[in-house]
Design brief:
The chain is mainly α. It has 14 helices and no strands. InterPro entries: AA-Vitamin_Transporters (IPR050638), EamA_dom (IPR000620), EmrE-like (IPR037185).
């Protein structure tokens, strides 16, 4: 069966659920772009330390497929994380966790538009429920705010992050056939390079906060678990069961993120958070059970 892929995806989403909590704990201890920069600095140092011989062997393939690997780093790593950490300055870790439930739905939409993936009525209904759950969270329980365009700025930023990671996941169908270390190292390097101008901008605008003791602990967590462990396991999971089915596991991020936010940060669990979780996870369950039969 696909038990190994399932385990990889569960651990990956647990690490990402913790990433939202880490980003919230980082506020005041390390600024968003500084966190993103140091996260990828440590991640690149670690992955290259164990990958150089393999990178040399894979270089002929990497050279031909460099654009897609750069895309992974710029969109999936830098854009997603820099936007997420910035969003956490303005909204809660619970909100950020739940809003990531919109990623699988968007992946299905992109796949349908680009590759004409078959969609059933049950899937349309299920993903509509997921969208409602995300909207409920973004509107802080009051959907009327969406009509008045008063959604929290942080929640609006998370929409950008959601789009970025959906694009990244869909694009994994074109990943080159190389060792997992190479597939992690090259995008991580370009994630680091594209973070440099962002941290310089943050410094120039007098918004940079150099990590203190807590900040460095958070940097190390994000480098090891939210970067290396989670990304490698996610790629393994996608290899095992495909991007569409693997994307459904992203809906564990709201569960893990919400529980960790309440347990570690002490954030309040509101009724609309519970309703949003039920809608998001229930919608995914309906969509998965109602998926079209394979031709």
């Amino acid at each position: 069966m696909h038990k190994k892929a399932y385990l990889c995806l569960v651990i990956a989403t647990l690490c990402w659920g913790g990433n939202a909590v880490a980003g919230k704990l980082a506020v005041g201890h390390v600024s968003p772009m500084m966190l993103t920069f140091w996260r990828w600095t440590f991640a690149v140092a670690i992955i290259f330390a164990i990958s150089v011989p393999q990178l040399i062997r894979d270089w002929p393939i990497v050279r031909k497929r460099l654009p897609i690997l750069i895309l992974y780093g710029v969109v999936g790593y830098t854009t997603f994380n820099a936007t997420l950490y910035t969003a956490l300055k303005y909204t809660t870790a619970i909100n950020v966790a739940i809003e990531q439930a919109g990623i699988p739905m968007l992946i299905f939409i992109i796949n349908f538009i680009l590759f004409r993936m078959r969609v059933s009525l049950a899937q349309i209904f299920g993903f509509s429920l997921t969208l409602l759950g995300v909207a409920l969270t973004a509107a802080h329980g009051d959907l009327g705010t969406l009509l008045e365009l008063t959604v929290n700025f942080g929640d609006a930023l998370m929409l950008i992050a959601v789009v970025a990671y959906a694009v990244y996941t869909v694009s994994l169908r074109w990943k080159p056939i190389v060792d997992w270390r190479t597939l992690m190292a090259i995008p991580a390097l370009f994630a680091l390079l594209t973070t440099v101008p962002l941290v310089l901008w943050e410094q120039a605008s007098d918004q940079a906060i150099w990590p203190d003791t807590r900040g460095w602990v958070i940097v190390l967590y994000t480098a090891l678990f939210a970067s290396l462990v989670s990304q490698v396991l996610y790629i393994k999971g996608v290899e095992g069961i495909g991007p569409n089915r693997a994307s459904l596991f992203i809906n564990l991020i709201p569960v893990f993120g919400t529980l960790l936010s309440v347990a570690i940060i002490g954030e309040d669990l509101q009724l609309f958070h519970i309703a949003a979780l039920v809608l998001a996870l229930g919608g995914i369950a309906i969509a998965e059970r109602g998926k079209p039969a394979s031709p």
